[in-house]
Design a protein that fits this description.
four-stranded mixed β-sheet; membrane; transmembrane; Glutaredoxin domain-containing protein; redox-active center; alpha+beta; about 10% strand; Thioredoxin-like_sf; single chain
Amino acid sequence: PRFHTNHSAHPHKSTIYYIHIHSLFHCLLFIAYVRNSNKQKYMDRVFQLAAERPVVVFSKSTCCMCHTIKTLFFDFGVNPTVYELDHIPGGREIEHALARHGAANDFPVVFIDGNLVGGANEIMTLHLKGSLSGMLKRAGALWL
C-alpha cells in the first residue's frame, strides 16, 4: 500500500523516540526539582520572617479569627508584625509552605520568638491558661 510504513527501513525512529522520552523525563525531573526548590525557598522565607520580630502573625485580611487574635495582641500592648497573605506577593505560596510545615489550614498562624505557636485555638488556650503573657515577655514583645 501507498501509506504503509516499514519501520525496519527507518531504524533511527526508535532511537529518536527514546531520546524524546528520555528528554521529557529529564524535563519533568527538572520541573519537580524547581517546584521543590521553590517550596523550600518559601519555607525558608517564612522562618526568616518569623525570626526577625518577637511576634509574627501570618493572616488573611478577611479572616475573623485573624482579626480576633491581632486584637488580643494589641490589647496586651504588643505590636505584632502582620503579614496579610492575601495582600502580599507570594502569599499563596507562603500559605502552602505553612500548611506543609504543619500549621493548620486555618488562620492566623502565629510565631512567637521565632517558634511556631499555632493558630487561634493555641493562642486562646495559652491566654486562658495565663501563659501567653509570659511567652510574650520572654520574647521581648511585652515589657509589663
